[in-house]
Amino acid sequence: MTGKYTFISLILLTLACGNAKAQDIHFSQLTETPMYLTPANTGFFNGYFRATANYRNQWAAMNNAFQTFGVSVDGGLFRTKNRSAFLGLGLTVFRDQAGAGNLSTTSALLNASSIIKTGRKSALSLGMAFGSIGTNADYSKLTYESQFNGNTFDPNINSQEIPYRQFTTLDLGFGAAYEINNAKYDQDRNDNRSIKFGIGAFHLNRPTQEFGAGSKYKLPVRMAYSILSSIDIEDTRFTVTPMFVYQTQGEYQNMVLGSDLKFRMVTGTKVTGKKKQNSIGLGVFYRRNDAIIARLIADIGDLSFSISNDFNVSGYRAATNVSGGGFEIALRYNMLANSLFDTKREYR
User: Fold this and answer.
1) What is the β-pairing status of strands 291-300 and 167-185?
2) What is the domain range of residue 106?
3) I want to staple 337 with a disulfide (CB 3.0 to 4.6 A). Which of 47, 164, 215, 237 is the partner?
4) pLDDT value of position 21
5) Overall average pLDDT of the 152-172 stretch
6) Is position 248 within any domain?
7) Do 115 and 76 meet the contact criterion of CB atoms below 8 Å apart?
């Protein structure tokens, strides 16, 4: 079976390196990668500073075909309740490593946005992202058909293949987001209801993928359309967070929808100004023609921890043993995210 998985990994690497339908990195917990959906989400959130770390191990049954790491930080600048607008500033770094040749892609993008009040309960954000993408691999670890000596692969045989090369390109993205928020206040807690519509366009400059000399293949533009919401069910301790994300990149299409169900727990008091809200929750999501995603999330003060796993329902389940489609972890710090006060929503 090891030989079969190695062969499949080599095929995946070839597809990733060649001219065939290159695509961006892949996450299941899309609510934990907001700037990956649109640069307009930069600084556009409840709280003052946010930092998130992500890790994904996809198709582990196939010798860790893909491992993805992400770190992002963002926050609002000049943000006060009396201002009609403020700025968002952030940084995202993603690294993806795949296949026997450790094909790696590292992107580092600086994000900036402008958030403008459009009403007492709504705001519009326009954002852009600018940075670079670096690609590299250890091609000495690859074997080719020409190196098969009749019994086994002999790495000492010259493959006659033209080696690929490391390269770095510039990257440009743009996006918009619009949020509507409504809240009901009482002595114990605020019940918030919000919905945010977003659109993001990435690789607008169509960077050339120079794996080989003279390559003219350009990375397709990735479009991401998102609807993210959070609804506190009135007179209960439950919150639902329905979401919908649709992405396209060249011929590739991806759609994810589902929701978390959270149970809210409260500590402290409003009188002392230290009242905080903690919660635990479960989520179920569906990625079209691919997998059902199960998620466990815990919000503890300003910290949030979540884990998820993909259960393949597509033809990939034969290779991934159904449950090996993708394991993912996200850790987020959001300053004042747990505040129950209206004052934290200063873009109102």
Assistant:
1) unpaired
2) 2-221+298-307+322-344
3) 47
4) 47
5) 76
6) no
7) yes
